[in-house]
Amino acid sequence: MENKLLSIISKIEVLDPMNAKKLKASIPFQDGEYWSRANEFINKYERLLQSMNKTIDFGIECYLKVCADTLYEQIQFAKTREYSCKSFADANRMIYGNPEVMEYYMHGLMLSQFLWVHHYEILKYFSTELIRYRENTVRYLEVGGGHGLYISEAIKLLGAEVSFDVVDISPSSIEMAKSFIVNSRVNYYLQDIYLYVTGSPYDFIAMGEVLEHVEQPVELLQKISGLLSDEGKVFITVPANAPAIDHIYLFRNIREVRDVLDRGGFNVIDERVVFAEKVPQGKAGNITVPFIYSAFLRKKK
Predict the structure, then answer these.
(1) What does the buried/exposed string (b/e) look like for 70-90 if buried means 16 or more CB atoms within 10 Å of the residue's CB?
(2) Domain 117-299 - what CATH class?
């Protein structure tokens, strides 16, 4: 079977040798499941590109733009210890409401799900644990559906009777998710989540990499709690020390993330933390390393 991910990395190597070198350094740590899932994903992504009359070279170009943006933000963050984007209004004007920026941003982030090992590890964690909640899930909501990869996984893992809703503020994200998922069971709502109302509560809500995009993450969690059934569950991911063009709220450590979840009205059922760089055990707390915190949550009683 052709290894499509290695083919992509070879193309990246021609354009950005240092980027490819870093990607190759992580490959020996992946197992057979990784390669199988990556090929399945790329096949699906290539079908999306074909529907847009584009090729994988376009996706690679977008990925490298995202890498360049991220590198610039990391340099600024090292100087200021602050994110450069200061408000949701700014992010909405410059990014979410800008189709040109959103196009390359979403495609670049799509490829990062398997090129960046920490992104893959969180996706694998979600897929492995979500099956535990299948029996009690009939209504599923994804907040900030992005490129559609996570809800695509949920559709595969949850029962055929489950209905799926996606709420996102970006028209570009909605269109990309529709093209990637191609499933009539998914309903899309182009709306600010704070204004979203539902007739009946959800059994499961996924919100991947959203809390860092708002000024008041506690208020967002309280809104999510109001959309959730009493016994419902939530899956969240939160990048920390992770500058990006649209990141606003800076989480500096795991304790700060847990504190926001607690004040937002949630208890942690299970959690997983993955660092973006390999850090010696016991040293991560002494240096500023980007990481993703992820967890399954329940409402406080």
Answers:
(1) beebbeebeeeeebbbeebee
(2) alpha beta
